Amino acid sequence: MTRTTLLWGLVALASKAPVAMAPLALVFLCRQSPHGYALGASLASAYVVGEVAGASLLGARLRHGRMRRQLSAGLIAGALAFCALPVARSAPSPVLIALAVLAGAAPAACPGGVRAMVTRTVPDGAVPRILSAEATLTQITWAAAPALVVVLALRLHPGAPLLLGGLLAAGAAILLLRLPEPREPEEPREESGSASSESASGESRSGESGSGERAAVPMRRSLLHGWPVYLTSAASMAMLATAELVLPALLEERRLAVGWSGPLLAGFALAGAAGALCYGLRTWPGSVRIQSLVLLVATAGCLCLVAVLPGVPGIAAGLLLAGVFQSGVMITRTLGLRERLPQRVHAAAYSVMYAVGGAGYSLTASLSAVALDLATPSVAILGGVALTLLITAVGAVAEGRSARRARAPEREKRRNSPRPDGR
């Protein structure tokens, strides 16, 4: 705990809360309008589309030396869009959709950028702990946000949650400027290591400091080199979508009160916070790649329990265990990306991973809706788990091959080096 990490915690909390509140807040904003819930769902979908586009496009343009200003400007633009939505709630639907897209897109690079900034302020050995703290903050925020939105929307004003989100985003923009600015790595050749040598073998010193057009190609190549990590991150978010979106239908199928979905999902998020905290308390055996694979499979197994165990206690047990393992997946995927790519592209890579995760969530949401039309909720959950395991297998095979190729030059060097006896 230092002044910098405490300040980072405030920035992370203030910038994540609007994201967690936005989809449900948009639904409540339109609940009493002529178009009702349909318009609210459309705005929530537009917000997610904006997030995915903003994280991939703006995140790839983050640069050391001016990252604070870039992120702060994005948060300010998002805050203005958040505050404009309640004011313009009676405006035509295209105007509201455009504001929702802007609210999602403008600050979308902030999670990856802030993560890259804080990991540069702590020693390498403390990075897993700081990422554990970030995951804990995220899960607590997502557990508390729905209840906060409901209370503000029903007791104050339908637009109150969005106004609060705008104020929090503006506060995060101001606090962000007080964080230390990360500098460009001095020796990117050493930082890149074997991973970047494959993905950016054409990168030269002139590409580092020359024209922006020449440097853009190595940046893209480096980002693309992390595709197996992005893929397994999408698999993780697919499981999250399966758990959240099919749960109400599963409860209804088993003739249980649908109102249980709120407490069960809150428990899922709080279990994730506890799991993230536990991960950061010690060093775990195996590489982060193996840890991530094990945790993904464990999460999938727990979701299978949700599909087959009877009653609320059985569903709760499966969700709580899934939440514990799911948070570990989030941390290990970030650590894996950090090891795989050169330091100078970490902020952009975290943003791309965030965007791919959002795309995985949205795709699984659409597939879950189709599955619920064709089969029972239990079958839909098992289908989502099967899809997740397939994506995980593809990503794991690709990561393994890449790791073996990266170690090949080192093994060849040891094989050709002279023995102690001179032979």
Automatic annotation (TrEMBL):
Membrane topology, record value:
Multi-pass membrane protein
InterPro entries linked to this entry: MFS, MFS_trans_sf
> Sorted alphabetically, which SUPFAM superfamilies does this protein's record hold?
MFS general substrate transporter
Parts of the chain that traverse the membrane: 37-59, 71-89, 95-118, 130-154, 160-179, 229-251, 257-281, 293-309, 315-335, 347-372, 378-398
Protein name (database record): MFS transporter
Originating organism: Streptomyces nanshensis
Quote the biased-composition stretches of kind Low complexity, using this chain's numbering: 193-214
**Keyword Transmembrane helix among record annotations:** yes
**Which is one GO molecular function term here?**
transmembrane transporter activity
Give me the Gene Ontology terms describing cellular component: plasma membrane
